[in-house]
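Dataset card, provenance and construction

Sequences and ligand SMILES were collected as paired inputs. For each pair, a complete structure of the chain with the small molecule in place was predicted and serialized as structure tokens. The example below shows a pair involving magnesium ion. Curators did not alter the output after generation; any descriptive sentences attached to a record were derived from the structure itself.
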Amino acid sequence: MKQLNAILEGFGSTWLLLVRALAYAPTLPRQFGRFVEQCYLIGYTTLPIVAILSFFIGSVLALQAGRSMQDFGTQQFIGSLVGLSMARELGPVMAAILLAGRVGSAIAAELASMKVYQEIDALETMNIPPARMLVLPRLAAVLVMMPVLTIIADLVGWFGGAIVAKYTKIISIEPESYFSVLRRYTHFSDVLNGLFKAELFGFVVVLLCCNIGLNTRGGPREIGASVTRAVVVSLIAILVLDYFVTQVLMAG
Amino acid sequence: MSSSCPLGSTRNPFTAVDTPAVGVSIEKLSKNFGSQQVLREVTFAVEPGEIFVLMGPSGSGKSVLLKHIVGLEQPTAGRVTVHGLDAAATATREQVRIALVFQSGALFNSLSVYDNLALYPREHQIADEAAIRDKVMHALQILSLEGTARKAPSELSGGMRKRVAIARALVMEPQLMLYDEPTSELDPVMSATISEIIATLKEEYHVTTIVVSHDRELALGIADRVGILMDGALVSLGPAAALHAPQDPRVAEFLSPKIDLQNPRFKNLEK
Ligand SMILES: Nc1ncnc2c1ncn2[C@@H]1O[C@H](COP(=O)(O)OP(=O)(O)O)[C@@H](O)[C@H]1O
Ligand SMILES: [Mg+2]
């Protein structure tokens, strides 16, 4: 009962924060500096790890699929499998998960420490809404950066698949034929589909982490607890949303 | 200092009109945290332009009381109004400029000292960068902080942080200024400077001031009236002069505690 209460309260405060932040959208142009800073932070912390991990995801996809497909003699279609899986599913989900781990945790830690050390209280007495100064620029930045992260994840993953396809003995497909199959079966709409998911996941992750950080209560110990909660809640949100959004996108 | 002080205009940056000195009224304010009652039916009023000093032992509820006046805490019972407006409402902070100097300073750790001070006028688009720069540098100069403008709060000592917090409040050109133990980490010279600032803001600009402090010198030096809070209740309220000969024995003990080396408590410690 107590947990249910906490979950409902979390839902409520997250919506409220979203509405408040969006109400300040017109102030975004004069907060351009903060927006750029957040974009840079997201890119700087998340890009390298997204690139490295997507490479391995693409590779392992090709490896696993290549083995099964070879049994049916269909390994020449491996490009379509890696292409579609990365674009529609793994690119956006990977980017969102890494965003939660790198950026979401940092946001929760920063806002939680501002709360615990009364910086948020100070902002409120100065009549500067935290939703405007701290949340809005981060939400805007993640909307701009998620497509970039996802496209890089897609490209690197495809590339990783190509390398494995060429150099694994049982597959041995030349990059030209790998990419020509990939292009034939992976449409621009598949990539767009993935970008839409990435935008949604990224936005939700940042919003949740901001809200959990801002609602921290108690002493410095609670900062760590908030960070853990932010990452766990983000991961749950990504995976649950993923299922439902995929279902809706497939029906549409 | 008085003639060159840039904090002069009592012009309200939100409405661009001259704003009057504001009063504060606290009526039967009670506050509970869970089962703990922190404030018990506290009632007093602070007149416009007055300096009110609130004293009392640690944990008596002074900081909590100040937070009610800026709207950071909501009363469990009773009412707090600033200039006749409900202190708990956000709209009040749009109409009355209230600055609180937090006990801990509450500086923005990710911003330099300069940016800490410049944040308020920038966010409220009160002035252009050049004018903000003048305001900020002057506030820093008043508190002897010129050298720290580019530093991060984490590079400062406790006393310096406190002074930055006061400077940040001055830049807000508040109509109501609240200080939570402003001199607790300062040396006697700096404490005297803070007293001067408080007195000047009152004399020249009619800034209503509430100071929470343990500092008897400060209280007797600048206060118009002094209230003493003990265990959440206001036990004494009157002109500062009355503190020279307090009636209430608890107040007398608080203001000039007797050190008793024969106290049995210490005897037990030795064994
Ligand atoms: N947010 C809070 N939650 C629970 N208890 C609190 C809170 N803030 C203050 N208190 C309690 O209220 C009492 C008064 O605190 P405070 O006003 O900070 O004392 P002081 O007079 O030293 O400033 C203390 O016992 C403190 O533990
Ligand atoms: Mg206190």
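Derived descriptions for this record:
Chain A touches chain B through 15 residues (CB under 8 Å).
Residues B 62-63, 103, 180 surround magnesium ion (ligand 2) (CB under 6 Å).
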